[in-house]
Amino acid sequence: MPTTPPRPIIGVFDSGFGGLTVLRALLRTIHGAHFLYIGDTARLPYGAKSRATVSRYAVESARLLEFRGAQLIVIACNTATALALDDIRAAVRVPVVGVIEPGADATAAAIANSLGAPFMEQSDITGPQVLVLATDATVQSHAYRAACSTLGLRATEKACPLLVPLVEEGWTDHPVTREVIRIYLREALATCTPRGVLLGCTHYPLIHSAIETELHALHASAVVIDSAQATASAVADELRTLRLHTQLSATASTFDCFATDSVEKFQRLGSHFLAQPIDTVHLLDLGG
Amino acid sequence: MPTTPPRPIIGVFDSGFGGLTVLRALLRTIHGAHFLYIGDTARLPYGAKSRATVSRYAVESARLLEFRGAQLIVIACNTATALALDDIRAAVRVPVVGVIEPGADATAAAIANSLGAPFMEQSDITGPQVLVLATDATVQSHAYRAACSTLGLRATEKACPLLVPLVEEGWTDHPVTREVIRIYLREALATCTPRGVLLGCTHYPLIHSAIETELHALHASAVVIDSAQATASAVADELRTLRLHTQLSATASTFDCFATDSVEKFQRLGSHFLAQPIDTVHLLDLGG
Lengths: 288, 288
What we know:
2 copies of one chain form a homodimer.
Chain A (H helix, E strand, L loop, with lengths): L8 E6 L5 H10 L4 E6 L11 H17 L4 E4 L2 H14 L4 E2 L2 H16 L13 E6 L1 H6 L1 H7 L4 E6 L3 H6 L6 H15 L6 E5 L7 H10 L5 E4 H15 L12 E6 L3 H12 L6 E3 L5
Parallel strand pairs in A: 1-2, 1-3, 2-9, 3-4, 5-6, 5-7, 7-8, 9-10
Helix pairs in contact in A: 1-10, 2-3, 4-6, 4-10, 8-9
């Protein structure tokens, strides 16, 4: 009698809660797998920190996920992807998927769709414009500009440091948040006319519709894209490449959460990002 | 010929930049000393983290300051004082001064002054009310409530998580910041009628006048106190107790800054908090 092969184990990590929007998309897209999620909440946020520090933290999480059996690692954090993708790939032996390339790909596809025509033959000087909203560290890395450029898109990157604290305060539908979004968008739209707005931070899907509303109020007709779903699709593709998809089943995927700070807070705040209850969170010591 | 005694060395630490408002008051108040300042910027902010994590981080900074020769340590951080004062005192052999007790003392004095009469004979049930604005972790510790209670003051503690990011964004004189202050104050004033408002976070001195303005716009006649100057006075007293004041001179104090993340960012952002240029910042590895 053949034994059932074990479920593929997929590791996912972020500085805290934002990456749970990526886990949410992964759970929706991929069935029959087991996810390990690390939120490095004792050292969050990464978005205003230096490349050396973010890289050191991210490599610790990635190594731990590999040690715990992850066959594929997802960096569910734009800052860590922007600053540390190469370091993480060098530190582990399993494949690593970040959020930036899938996000840029999805944006290119959405813009081509909205234009009703491909634009790949254009150069990144004359190609369609994209506005990337992200943390300070992600913007300063220019990782999105580079990823968009290879797709023929011209990216303008705008740092929006207040949006993460506003989302974490729970003010996702609040006049102050709308006002802050309006200020950031007005500043950005003074220098570009984007066809697409890419949400380059895993917190921003929670204010997706607020960003869309303010964008339209400023008479910009850009399509708004978040990278969570695009990343989930890229992970599904990677599972096929690795031939792990044969081990998937139709049953819902399962997940385990680990946090480096208060597990109670992770359960409480994390549930909003994951849009479902988180029953158990394990406390994790990364030595920081 | 008698040798000149060495300058007293005073250690000061915070999760990042806010404690520089305390260092600023210390430099103004105490001449002829040498200050060592640690900003644990790689792991900031502390304000939303758990007691265990904040305590671990704070003890590491305090131990390092003692190792580097500090004869007195100042916790220039409300959250670390609220959550870890006892742990820090147990971890080092030199005296430790926090910001909470001096802040509460200064508030009691200011209220007594504004009333034109002492109130110490009143109990903390009937005593004057104080509104404490602070981070989430400081509020949840109720350290201010306890410190105020021993002085016959009734404290209402209000968490204001967005004020630190707004100050760090540089929006110290901005309509959004005023609106956020108004929202927090309106919520707090619905439950108390304070004679004093205590700024229980070292970032808030940078928005002292905005808080005062919004408070008066809401027809509250409370006096606004920040603990930086009160802490500097407590440190001067402690130097006398330790008989270190005999080693002070009339020359300006000097200082060295250490940061656990980008030294460039510390120089740039820190100068606003210190209100003077920071020439040199040393990179420090606390192992986190």
